Structures are given as structure tokens and as C-alpha cells.
Amino acid sequence: MTDASQNPGRRGLRAWLVEEDVTSHRQAVAQGAYRGLVGLTSSPIAVIGLVIVILLVLAAAFAPWIATHDPYRQDLSRTLLPPSAANWMGTDDLGRDVWSRLVYGSRTTLYITMLVTVIVAPIGFLIGAVSGYVGGWLDTVLMRLTDIFLAFPSLVLALAFSAALGPGIGNAVLAIALTIWPPVARLARAETLTVRGSDYLASARLQGAGLGRVLWWHLVPICLPSIIVRLTLNMASVILTAAGLGFLGLGAQPPIAEWGAMAAAGRQYLIDAWWLTTFPGLAILLVSLAFNLLGDGLRDVLDPRSG
Amino acid sequence: MIEVEDLQVFYGEGRDRFHAVRDVSFRVEKGETYGLVGESGSGKSSVLNAIAGRHSDWTGTVRLAGAEVDPRRRNPADRQKVQIVFQDPFGAIHPKHTIGGTIAEPLAINRRQNRGETVDALLRQVGLPGRFRYRYPHQISGGQRQRVSIARALALQSPILLLDEPTSALDVSVQAEILNLLQDLRRDQGLTYLMVTHDIGVVGHMCDRIGVMKDGRIVEELTKAQLVRGETAHPFTRELLSESLLG
Amino acid sequence: MSDPILSVRNLRVTFPSLAGRIEAVRGVSFDIGNEKVGLIGESGSGKSLTGRSIMRLLPKAAHPVADRMRFDGKEILSLPEGEMRGMRGGEIAMILQDPKFSLNPIMSVGDQIAETCRIHLKLSKREARARTLHLLEQVHINDPARVYPLFPHEVSGGMGQRIMIAMMIVARPSLIIADEPTSALDVSVRGQILRILDELRAERPTGLLFITHDLNLVRRFCDRVLIMYSGRIVEELPASRLDEAEHPYTRGLLDAIPRLDRPRDRLATLQRDPRWITEEAGR
Fold first, then answer.
1. CATH code, domain carrying A154
2. Number of domains in chain A
């Protein structure tokens, strides 16, 4: 939608995006995106979520320019200072600027959410879709495996994994990913079952399509919207779990700025220096909420039944 | 072109095993249209699915273009002989693919060259403008979807098309256009049709010969002329005719 | 005609869309008395929306307006929702194409009819059961006691439609809106359903709006036909004189039907005239 220069003029852009007479593949894709955007922005709540998530991305991308201090530079002469003009959100017990650490912490948060998505979506889809499409004993085996993972409380499982893998943000993410793929697999299986007997899959089979083609070309477009929605809604709990692991010392290791770990570090100064826990806590709350709102909005837009 | 001998089709396993089609035999010559008529549950769609390879639990002999097919294993040559046009224009096309992508799929699966031009030619054959290839199914009408479905079935140049109630979900005016299109394609490309329907009017218009099915058997076989004159021997056919004909 | 049961004047239904507002029903007027009125049209002609407007069962985005939509002395479009709810399934009943969507999937069909009896007729549990069995018999279900405990997914399409009708007659509606009630059924079952509807109407005056795309069916079953095209009624005539229709659209539809008694090499296809969309109905 950005290449308006190649389209028939700026004024005609909207017409180009809504007209029924589609003349190129690019236009078809752009129209789909436009309809999604219009749908998403028609819900004010989803827009709030979207804006906060975009702000998060911007903060992560431009952290060096937004931060007022070096997030890692310690200054033991300026510890535990309350919020002021020089340090907008005060300083921590090592004299580091809380605002700057919060800004850099958005990178960690984004890193966690992206890594979890990249790991969980393919695993969940593959297990769910194969299970639903192939059926039979393979379905039974894969679903029982999923059940076993589902049966553990996810935080406990994540704790066990990250304890076994060793502390660190990467391992924490891996541990979280291992605990949240089962619902995604269930979802992918359910979506697959609804289209398994459809005529277009029958037609593809009659034309000789193999499993790989059916999965990639037919089932991915069917399952992807609900997986995206599910993962977006899950992001809040992922961020909270990551924060929880950080809080327990199993997530990000010092001196990396991570909101959960920051909140944990401020715990011992809760009475004297409220800003240490409050601001990271608020940031976690805000971003979790934003992902939830965005997920709700996406559900309305991407619902495959409305396509 | 199609020879079916002593076909038995089963569904289910063990005690629930259901004998859906019993001792069905018929032949369809090249360029002919053969109609299977009957009520729901008469087994007419089961016959079609068995021939298409969509259902594999059957016994008997099925020969397509002279070569016998194995119920369990279809080789690529068998697949290219026969394609289906489905009843429901909404369910037969992937909702998230463009029309062009849908028609090109059989070409891609079978690694054909020049897909872009072939898709253009196929769209022209079924009477759709070339720019439709960029549209999504929800942007076109039911009749247009059925044309897309036909274009996809034609893509591999299969000599046999199986038509599973191809117009029963369409309005009469659109039905007329699709039936005319099917007639033209058959004449121009020398196709052989096996058509399943419950509409006596459609069968009388399209088919050279008709097999009337009831409870999994063909109870009567008629030519088009016999059907039009109402020369039926079997009471069930007469009942079908009287219910379908104008009061 | 004496006082009509339903009188509709200038009904319009609009939808918002990306490209502005779309008017799907554009000024429809008709009356229904104690008769069977067929409403014919293609998909997208607005025939189902017209039927649903009478029940006030439109999609949320739809916006219906009418100069008049009077049923039993009441303006349907301005009734409070609570009163309307009592009317649906009460004085006005609707039969849809697929009964599976109208029945509760986790309740046996007998219990569903019995519940309707208890709500509408204030019967006791035992009376409701007896009444239900009687009703099932009335819609020609041979062994009501066997059908009573079945769940909706266990009954065939024709059986489901009969159950819907049985449930409907509990309240003795004076207007029935049937939206493609027999399109999914085999011809022999279709005949039975139509006969049941006729028997029902013989008991008391009932208006029937029969929405369908099947011209042959309307010709045989209905008294009067309304032909809808692109949100308007373009022609209205007695069903017995359908073959004498004058509007080119109706003529085109009639010619497009493949008929055994008139075999042709090619079917006539409809040439749509843009004027049909704008011009007023002839009569």
C-alpha cells in the first residue's frame, strides 16, 4: 500500500483499494490488507492495542535515541534517586537510569515475543495439522503427546526446563515455547478437521497433491489466522511468564535490562524506592494488555469464517 | 471410455459396514454423457466417488479409457484421466486462494510449463475474463465459481469429467449458462461426462443415456428418447417423473 | 381481498459497505391474505431479506425501513423487541431450508417440541409429551415414540423439516414464512412436506409466504407469485398463469429451465437488461 507512486495517482488510491475489478496480484494483496486494516481500525479498543504495540516496536528500534542515559552505566554516587528532571523515572540501586533501562527492556520483551512466535507457530501448526489431516494412529500419538504437555502447569514446566537448560533469556524463551505449543497444535488440528473433508482438498488429492503441498498450500492459509490470534492473545502470558522467570532469576541475567528482572531487583527497596518496581510493572501490564486488545481485534478481522 | 462392472461400494468398518452400492454395471462411450439419477442415499454419489478415487473401499472392475484402475492405488496416469466438478461452488474452491492460484494448482502439482498462459486460456474457455485470476472466491458469484471449478477440472486435459450435481446449488438462469458451457466443452474437446443429479429436467437435457438408481442398484436404464416420451418400465422411475414433471 | 394478514408497503433494507451504503431491498410492497404466496427470485435478489424483515431477523448491520409493515394491527418494525420475540414462533412462524440450524443440537427433538408446548400452551410435563406425540403424528411421522428421543443430527432432512413444522403448529401461527423449505429434500419427500403445509392451512386461515427459486414448485403449489429482481418486485401474477408472464425477466427464467416436455439443444440464457433495475413494476 506504500507504493502509491506506481498506482493511478494519490487520489485514486482508495478507489484502487476498494474497486471490484482487480487487475494485478499486487492489487489483490493490497486490497486484502486494506480490508483488514479497515476492519481492525473500526474497533477503537483494537486500535489502542495496536498503537501500544507499535510504540513498543518503535521504542525497541530507536532505543539509543529515546533513552536519556546509558542503561548499563553505573553511578554509585547517584543510587535510588526518585524521579526528577534528570532521571525521569529515578535511578536504581546501582545508579542506573530506570527510564533508559525500561526503553532498552522493550528490546528484550520484543525479542521474547518474536522468538516464541517463530518457535511455536511452526511446531504447533505442523503437529496439529498433520495430526488432523492424516488422522488414524498418528493422530492418537500426537494428541496424547500434546495432552502430556498440557497436563503440566506451564510455569512449573517452564521453571523445570529453564532450570535444566541453565539460566538465560534464550533458554527462558525456549522453555516458554515448549509449554505453549500444545494449545496451538490443538487449534491447528481443530481447524484442519473442519476442512479435511472439503471438496477443494479432495480435488487437490485427485490431482495428485502430496502431504507437503496440502499442508503448505491449503492448510497454512486456513490455520494461520486463528494461530496468529491465539499467539497474540497468549503474548500477555508469555511476557508475564518471562517476567516471572526473570523475577526468579532464571530468565534474563544481569546486567541485561528485562522488565521482570527489574521489578524483582526493586523488590527489596519497595518501601523506599517505589519507582523501581512500579514502572517496570506498569510496562508489563500495559504491553500485556495491548497484546490482549490487539488479539481480540485480530480475531474479529481474521476470523476465517468471515473471509 | 468408462466401463464399470459389478461394482460394490462399502462404507464403514466391521459391524457398521454398509453396502452402499450393489452390482452396478454400465458403460459410457467416448463423447457420451451418462446420467445417474436417484434420491439421496441411492448410492449415485458413491459410484462417482469410487470412480474418481475419492473412496477406495470397493470391489468390481472399473476401466477408464481402456485401463483398469486399482481401488487402493492410483497412479498419476489414472489421475490425469478423470476430474470432478463438485456440487457446492462455495466448498469446492479454497477460500484464501486467488482464482488464478486455484486453476494453476493442478498444473503446478503435475509440473506443467507455461502456467500463466494456460490459466488465461482456461479462463477464456469457461467464459471468464482474464483479469478474474486475481480475484478471491468471495468476490465472485456462485455461477462464476462453478466456472472456475470447471476450469480447474479441465486444466490437466482429462478426457473424462465427473459432474456431481454441478448445477443444483445454482439459480435457473445460471444453471442454463453452466449447462450450455458444459455442452459446448464436451463438443469442442470430445469429453466424456458422467453426471450425477436428482433433477430429471437436467438429466433429460444433458444426458444421452440414464441409469436410475434406488437403494444402491441401477433399477432401470433409459435412453434420452425413452425418458422424454415417458417410456419407463419401473414404477420408481415413473414416480420420479411424475413428481418432477409439471403438474 | 378481505383484510390482509400482512401488509407491506415500500420496504427497504440497506447495508453499510466499504463503498458506501447498499440497498438490498428497494421498495417492496405486497399483501398476504389467507393464501399461498410464492416469492421467486435468484440469490441476491433480496427475497430472503424480505422474509427475514417480517420476522425482524436481519443481520445486525442491516437497516430495514418501510412505510407500512402491518401484521394483526401492529407495526412490526416499531414493536419493542420483547413483544417481537413473543410474536416469533407465536403468530408468525418461520421454516428455513436446513432445520439442523434451527434445532437445538443437544436436546432431543421430542423434548424441544414439548418445551414449545409448555411455553405456549402452559401444559404440564406429561400433557406436553402426549401433545408432542400427537403433533408428530399430525406431520405424518409413523412411529412418534421412536422419533421422540432422537437428536437433530440423527434425523433426515425431511424428518427434520416435519419436526420444525410440528413445533411451529403448536402456536397456531396465522402467518408462515417458509424460506426454501424443500430445496434440500428429495422430490418425493418434498411432496409430503407440501401436503402437510396444505393440511395445516385447511384448519384455520393462514397466510403463507413461500420463498424459493424453484418456478415449477411455485406454479404447482402457490396461489399467487411475486417475482423479485435486484431488490424489487418486477411482476406479480396468479401462479396458474405463470406461463403468461410478461416481464422479460420472468420469461427469461421460464425459458432457462430444462424441461422434458420441451427438449432443446441449447437452453435459452437470460439476457439481463439494466432497465429492469430502475423501472417500476408494471402493475
1. 1.10.3720.10
2. 2
Domain check: are A3 and A117 in the same one?
A: no
For CATH 3.40.50.300, the residue range(s) in chain B are 2-81+159-244
In contact, C88 and C175? CB cutoff 8 Å = no
Q: A178 lies in a domain? A: yes
* Chains touching chain A, criterion 3+ CB pairs below 8 Å: B, C
Give residue C279's pLDDT.
65
Nearest to A15 by CA among A29, A40, A42, A34: A34
What radius of gyration do chain C's Cα atoms show? 20
Residue C280: the pLDDT is: 57
Q: What is the pLDDT of residues C16-53, one digit of tens each?
A: 877 778 888 999 999 999 999 999 988 888 899 999 99
In a domain, A47, yes or no: no
A18 vs C contacts (CB less than 8 Å): 18-19
Give the CATH fold of the B2-81+159-244 domain: Rossmann fold (3.40.50)
Which residue is it, cell 486399482? B70
Is there a domain that residue A33 lies in?
yes
CB contact under 8 A, B173 and C190: no
Q: Cβ–Cβ of B86/A203 closer than 8 Å? A: yes
- What is the domain extent for residue A182? 52-306
Topology, domain C6-277: Rossmann fold (3.40.50)
Q: How many residues does chain C have?
A: 283
Cβ–Cβ gap B228/C268 under 8 Å: no
Residue B45 to residue A220: CA distance in whole angstroms = 30
Give contacts of C19 with chain A, Cβ < 8 Å: 18
Handedness of CA B201, B205, B211, B216 (dihedral sign): negative
Q: A207, B93: Cβ pair inside 8 Å?
A: no
**More reliable by pLDDT, C119 or B99:** B99
Contact A221 B91 (CB under 8 A): no
Q: Which residue of B has its CA nearest to A202?
A: B54
Average pLDDT, integer, range B199-217? 91
SS3 state at C184: coil
Identify from C17, C18, C21, C22 which residue to disrupt to test chain A contact, counting A C-beta atoms within 10 A and taking the largest count. C18
* C62, C13 contact by CB (below 8 A): yes
Helix (H/G/I), strand (E/B), else coil: C242 = helix
B237 touches chain C (CB under 8 A): no
Q: How many cross-chain Cβ pairs, A to B, lie less than 8 Å apart? A: 74
Interface confidence, given as ipTM, is 0.86
CB-based contacts of C113, cutoff 8 Å, min separation 6 = C132, C135, C136, C163, C166, C167, C170
The chains found to touch B (3+ Cβ pairs under 8 angstroms) are A, C
- Give the pLDDT of residue B247: 38
Domain ranges of chain C: 6-277
- Inter-chain contact B228–C263, Cβ cutoff 8 Å? yes
Q: Is the pLDDT of residue B13 over 60?
A: yes
